[in-house]
Amino acid sequence: MTETVIELAQVTRMYPGNPPVHALRGVNLRVGRGELVGIVGPSGSGKTTLLNVLGTLDRADAGTVCIDGQDVSTLDDRQLSALRAHRIGFVFQQFFLSPGVSSLDNVADGLLYTGQPLAERRRRATQTLERVGLADRAHHRPNELSGGQRQRVAVARALVGRPSLLLADEPTGALDSESGASVLELLRELHEDGTTILVITHDHDVAGLLPRQVHIRDGHIASDDALPTREGR
Amino acid sequence: MMHPSRLRQGDALRVAGAGLKARPLRAVLSALGIAIGIAAMVAVVGISASSRAEIDQQLQALGTNLLTVEPGQELRSGGTATLPAESVDMVARMGPVTSVSAVGEVDDAFVYRSDQIDELKTNGISTFAARPDLLGAVGGEIASGRWLDDALAAYPTVVLGATTAERLGISQADGSVAVWLGERWFTVVGILNPALLAPELDAAALVGWPVAEELLGYDGAPTRLYERSPESRVEDVRAVLPATANPENPEEVTVSRPSDALAARAATDETLTTLLLALGGVALLVGGIGVANTMVIAVLERRSEIGLRRALGATRAHVRIQFLGESVLLAGLGGIGGAALGGVVTSGFAATRDWPFALPLWALVGAAAATILVGAIAGAYPAARAARMSPTAALATV
Fold first, then answer.
1. Measured between beta carbons, which residues in chain B are less than 8 angstroms from residue A90?
2. Domains present along chain A, CATH in parentheses
3. ipTM entry
4. Which of A96, B74, B114, B398 lies deepest, with the highest CB count within 10 Å?
């Protein structure tokens, strides 16, 4: 089997409250290098918690989370931040681009916390913008771009550090179907180039376009294409 | 192992500045409080330094080596003592003394604008007999007309002090004006500028020594001696002056140094300066609270930015540095503006008074240190709050 990028074993996450919310109840998941995986589930199913745990933005209460061979439970804040800076790229539904800042510098900010000099960050940002097909929009600001273009800039920002893992949280959720399709097409192209990508979505049409689908419901994996025979549900 | 997260210093500065650039009006308004506080403090220090520089300059010009000798009180009777008539000559014979002169108050000789004026309206003007070398000894200057030289001293002529001329309403000293002095007309031949080291001359009318004795019944006893010696010998001279001026009763002699009084007057202004400085400090404090308020709001507004930065690999420390830096920059912006404003106020105030412009370096260094401190204190809590924020909560707010 291929090299493993994500390895989750019996991961649970509970949010205290009245009643407490069991967002993840013993999740097992393995994603190999170069895979393009859709995590599909209705809202409240725990998929955003799963993304946060995978992105090391949130910690699991129990179980092991290994990202790129690192058991994240042993890492402190600085080490987790380093992991995010160098190995993980995030794409969010709301893009989170800095207003008033050019596409080029928004993308270059993806390398801000790697300590590379500005000139090098911009050079790599230019390359990455070319790769997502926005070389001609490098000096446009977010408000001068369409929604689809903004999300492509956000994808480029996630990609510019050549992460081991790209996490996309509802990347088409704020886009019309045409723009959404173009963003998905971009993700498929990146997948063909070898990037490991995890897409979280509630949209079965979107998930249908992805090679591997993992369905999540009520905090556990309901079905996983990679394990068709073992998990019957 | 992996490279750690790292934010270059230049980038930290850029990130801190970006927050201010995004909302320039808010930045300017919240820096304004700091600017007013710093401007007030810098201007207070600058104005008092300029005033002191002016006094120093005057003292430099007038010299600080002038001593005055006055009769004190008679020990036994408690009445006013007198100096012997020959005291001027005795002081002049002392080795280090370079110049000496004297005035003698002429009792019961009052000055009026004309003989029609009510006798009781003396205007508080006293009449002094003055020796011809008086001006040189006290550093006095003629504003108009001429001084009582040897030729004039024997005739009924008078030189008026600056205040006297003003009170009598006389501005001309070309010999065409006379005043009613001691029951006869005296021609005004000169008017003096204010004498800083001998302010008693300002409200006096000065007549020649011989005229005073012949026409005004003056007894010839000097009431104030003016003496100069080289700066290095002033204290030595001061020690022996009483015994020299009045060998019989040295304890009845008072010696003083007028430049000390002038310097002391400058020092008394410091109470006011301290008070105003404290007021500026209050303004600075209020400005600091304004900055803290702005930063608390900024952290609340920019939760998603904080979440994004954490996702991009910022550590808690990076987030803290960003907001702390933003706060210090904000305060620093106010500090620079305030220091400039304070400098302008100082130079404007000094210019209207014809003072030299003086702004001590420590005031500017102090202003810079104060703004950095205020910015750091104001930003500490908001920055800690931003750093503590959990990334998932920060991202979930939109």
1. 308, 311-312
2. 35-59+76-232 (3.40.50.300)
3. 0.93
4. A96
